[in-house]
Specification:
The chain is mainly β. The protein has a single domain, classed as Jelly Rolls, CATH 2.60.120.380. The protein is 12% helix and 53% strand. The strands form two sheets. Strands 2, 3, 5, 6, 7 and 10 form a six-stranded antiparallel β-sheet that branches. Strands 1-11-4-8-9 form a five-stranded mixed β-sheet, covered by helices on one side. Strand 5 and strand 6 form a beta hairpin.
């Protein structure tokens, strides 16, 4: 477990040094909603992405699941990596990391090439105001 946490911490340091923050799912109050970002496109040099949640208001007990979906050439989407359903609060931070060289950890990270086209899916059970950010590492 310590090795995994150290590896993820080092990954985050790499992201913070070279990442560009995007907000594909803007902050809004949602109740029992499944929300999808628009299509996002891998940019030249992208090695990995980090997906994170920012909860700013929480009137009741809620859970959230984040999913990275790759768009297939036929136009359909497939789940690449999903978080566990997580009880959220204003201090909860859900993080998914995907890219070549990342550790393989169920519901946390995947060692996969960057999909050329992808989107983020968030599923909220309950009510919360939140946004979803994406950082790219190149």
């Amino acid at each position: 477990m310590k090795k995994l946490l150290l590896s993820l911490a080092l990954s985050l340091i790499a992201f913070s040094a070279s990442a560009l923050q995007e907000i594909p799912i803007a902050s809004a109050s949602r109740a029992g909603a499944t929300t999808y970002s628009s299509d996002l496109y891998a940019k030249k040099g992208d090695r990995a992405i980090s997906i994170n949640s920012y909860v700013t208001a929480l009137p009741d007990a809620s859970t959230m699941t984040l999913t990275l979906q790759a768009k297939m050439p036929q136009g359909n989407y497939v789940d690449v990596l999903s978080s566990a359903a997580t009880a959220v609060s204003t201090s909860t931070f859900i993080l998914l990391t995907a890219g070549e060289g990342m550790p393989v950890t169920s519901n946390i990270s995947a060692n996969i090439p960057m999909p050329p086209v992808f989107r983020i899916k968030s599923v909220l059970v309950g009510t919360a105001t939140y946004s979803i950010g994406v950082n790219r590492a190149n």
